[in-house]
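hiii, so i know i said id send this last week but things got crazy w the move. better late than never?? heres the sequnce for the chain we talked about at the cafe, plus the structure i predicted for it. fair warning i was half asleep when i ran it
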Amino acid sequence: MKLNLFKISVFTFFKLPAAWWAGVRVSEINDTSCEVSVRHRWINQNPFGSMFWAVQGMAAELSTGVFFIWSIKSQKVAVSMLVLKNKATFKKKAKGLIRFKCDQGEAAVAAINKTIDTGEPVIVKMKSVGTDSSGVVVSEFEFEWTLKRK
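okay and structure toks below
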């Protein structure tokens, strides 16, 4: 199944409404990488004048999880997916447009294929890096996903 920004936006609206209303959008995607953008706005701010950490987490998680979602949908096999662990590092206040990028699409598809082929649970670590418009890293997230064929 071809990755399509419009279909992903519709999916986000219906399945991840909190992320959609906070302004989280997939801005670029291909077989190997995904970029998710979110702009600091009133609705996603914290009391300190920057983007709330949970909004950054939603954007980062989507940049890693979209590969699993679309791989599962394209193969039409029931696979459960769950974030087992999460680690986040914040380096700078997130203001303006923040882009979260994950370059591990091939690893995600390989993990899905492995759990489908073997029936065994698979754990895969995925990283997403958030940068501001100047290219400065504002936060880094690491997700440990667990996948299992149903």
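btw The two ends are 21 Å apart (CA to CA). thought thatd interest u
miss u guys!!
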